[in-house]
Amino acid sequence: MNITDEKQSEVPSNVTDLRDIPLSHVSDIDREGIIRRVLPETLVERVPVARFNSSI
Amino acid sequence: MPFRQFVLKVHSRCDLACDHCYVYEHADQSWRSRPAVMSDETAAWAVTRIAEHVKSHGLAQVHVVLHGGEPLLAGHGRLGRLIAELRGGLGGLCALDLRVHTNGVLLDERFLDLFEEHDVRVGVSLDGDRAANDRHRRYADGRSSYDRVIRAVERLRRRPQLYAGLLCTIDVANDPGAVYRALAALEPPRVDFLLPHATWDSPPSRPTPTAYADWLIEIFEIWSAEGRVVPVRMFESILRTSRGAPSLTESLGLEPADLVVIETDGTYEQADSLKVAYEGAPATGLEVFHHDLDAVARHTGVLARQQGLGGLCATCRACPVVDSCGGGLYAHRYRTGSGFANPSVYSADLFKLITYIRRRTAMPTHSVPAATMDALSAGFGDQEDVRCLAAAQRTMRRALLAGVNAHETPTAGWELLTRLDDEHRDAVDAVLDHPYVREWAVRCLRQGGDAGYLANIAGAAAVRAGAVAEIAITAVDGVFHLPTLGAFEAGSATTARLVAEGGRFSLEDLPGAVWHPLRRLTAEGLSVVLEDTDPHRRCHGHPVAGRLTEEEAAAWQRVFAEAWALIESDHPAYASGLRAGLTTLVPLDPPAGGGSASSAARNAFGAVAVAPPADPATLALLLVHEFQHVKLGAVLDLVDLCDPTHTGLYYAPWRRESPRPLEALLQGVYAHLAVTDFWRVRRHRSEDGPGEVQFALWREQTARAIGDLDGSGGLTPLGARFVSGIRRTLEPWLDEPVSGQAAAAAAELAERYRAESAALRR
């Protein structure tokens, strides 16, 4: 049997498991990732671009 | 791609003589031939060019950074005129995010007054503690700049609305801990750690092969241990890009560059950092007096920085951290001969740093056991399978709640809830598991909800925890609702003070408020909430019933118990999943035209809304039907079954008013698989006359819709696998015999539905 024919035992999701994360510690990244998934229309649509930062 | 970031070089000279400065100390020496200061005429042209660019591209917001040299050398008067010109020229056209980057030594109260008047935020360059800063950031005569810069930052701290952050150029000879702590002590809204500009031709001073990674990792550890109090853009960008979100900085990530520099003489330049590559590297040959910004946007150098992954060398494209690194800052890739088609000169550092942060912060994600996915795709799913979906819903609600809080100023509700979350997690979980908490949070995030209701959620959790609490709660739709408990009638009051202790509670200022406790419907092995108090249950597309009388509630109890007995005896394949996931039944008003009505809402996992059914069998059918939507909605929360960019619309015989998007068609198929199964069993019961016709009708219609799903080209590989599961369950039913009369009646109904649909679309 080809190894690629083997069935995956888990179907992965990209949703971070927050059940054991205290509410006060839910990170912006995880929060936004889930909101983007559940409510894509609520996040301001903007073309992501490289943000300037340069010291002088 | 239009430009949205504009760096205006308002003064090309500097009052410091930092020996690491990329403007004066590297390959490009074009500053020598430029005017020291941007003239009013050049500034006016620059603003005109930006304004026409905003208009022609319909830009909603642009960012302008006043830069140098040292921009404050332009003086109060000239800088004031330029800022006023920018606000005047762009203010009516788009949102303008206006900033100034300064070394800070000249930043006095007069400048700050000017910046306050025109809403200009200030970033200050500071390399850390005194020893670190003075290693490079000195006056030409060798004097330290540290005290003056610190005074400037202290001034900014007194005007926090102007304080944009600190920019620190790394020197690995400095003590990373001391640098970080010195910067953090100044409470900046953001810190940028910047790799000193270098190329393969002129590599950075590096005592070990990954000295910069090691230096940053030391800070990352302190930053993490101290609760990440100060936002560090580099670390945040690595964390974000590691989870698929965009980078926050030009030096990381694959996002295209949309930045242009306008020099003091009006010439357009590409990225400022290119000055380290070679003489003339940033030049475009274009200027504000004769060329618009679209001409600059077509410049090959500008386009080269917008190619994302495709613009990187083969080594970078094959790298496992390329989505975070993005090849590093464009300028840092330069090498004579191969130009910019190289990894960054900091490649080894970036690889080590990103890999380290990823390993250090790996967060578990949800997953669905393959066996659960198979059971669900077959149309069923037992207790364990549905519990797996319910577990992920808890994550969703926690994220959404945190999202509501992030959009509001911190409230007493959030404070109480987070305290209870630490001390009484079970009580908080019980309240957050209430289906309509998510509906409320979604409304808030869509700007349609009352964020004050967070206090009601916290109050309910306090009551359930038996904690002592006092909090002002909010009336929504005429009630002070406490999720999982019930509601007080609010009358004309909009807020009330909830006092809770030892599980008892009251409204201190409305002692006479009528309390409507939640009631439950119970059956053998199942108990669900009869939800007629939560204002957020109004999300089912049908009018909900008001508070039921005791008689009405008793009638629901009778029909529910009988319906459940019927599900358990005749449709056991659905009973187990329902037992694990059905928590709430919302009574709807009877439909005006008669018949039945039922609904599941995507943001209310566990709830089903139903109008008073004709009989227990109808309720059993509606519960089974709607719970299919509940299950599939929860699957879709976790994984993509349909390509979100697919725009096809499809006929759905169960929703004849308009063609349905692919995901809605899938939802209908999934529900009608169970409807078919219901009638497959029920048709053998003599009391259900139309059962045979219903079975014949829905098996055919579901099969056709499965064909549409298969042929749509809009299913993801997982979606195709899911639909295969549905098909495998349905296929044997297509071979079950039905009478010719029933088949004909079903065909006639199917034809009538198509005709109705066509008529409605005309």
TrEMBL record, chain A:
It comes from Microbispora siamensis. This is FXSXX-COOH protein. It comes from the Bacteria. The lineage of its organism: Bacteria, Bacillati, Actinomycetota, Actinomycetes, Streptosporangiales.
UniProtKB/TrEMBL annotation, chain B:
Keywords: Iron, Iron-sulfur, Metal-binding, S-adenosyl-L-methionine. SUPFAM superfamilies: Radical SAM enzymes. InterPro entries: AKG_HExxH, Aldolase_TIM, rSAM, rSAM_sf, rSAM_SPASM_FxsB, Sulphatase_maturase_rSAM. Residues 1-239 form the Radical SAM core domain. Pfam families: Radical_SAM. The keyword Iron applies. The keyword Nuclease does not apply. It comes from the Bacteria. This is Radical SAM core domain-containing protein. It comes from Microbispora siamensis.
